Amino acid sequence: MEGNEYLLEILVRERLDDARALTARHALVARSRPPRAPFRARIGRALVALGERLGGAHPPSAAASGARFL
User: Fold this and answer.
1) Rounded to whole angstroms, what are the CA distances from 27 to 19, 21, 22, 24, 55?
2) What is the pTM of this model?
3) Where along the chain do its domains lie?
4) 10-residue stretch averages of pLDDT, the chain, 70 residues long
5) How far apart are CA 15 and CA 9, in angstroms?
6) DSSP per-residue letters across 6-66
7) How far is CA 41 from CA 48, 51, 58, in A?
8) CA distance 35 to 42
9) Which pLDDT score is estimated for 39?
């Protein structure tokens, strides 16, 4: 039984090392990304972009439409 416990200890140690390496990789990737804007800010920007797309970025000016004021 001693041999099996030793083998089990080695296998557990290897799995722990793999899990720690994976966690370190995930932490490194998370730190390399820029922080995300809050959800409400992202929704707001999306709604503004949608409004600009549907209504046009700028309303037409009086000079561009050819209207003359007396």
Assistant:
1) 12, 10, 9, 5, 43
2) 0.46
3) 2-54
4) 82 97 95 90 94 76 57
5) 10
6) HHHHHHHHHHHHHHHHHHHHHHHHHHHSPPPPPHHHHHHHHHHHHHHHHH-SSPPPHHHHT
7) 11, 15, 22
8) 13
9) 95
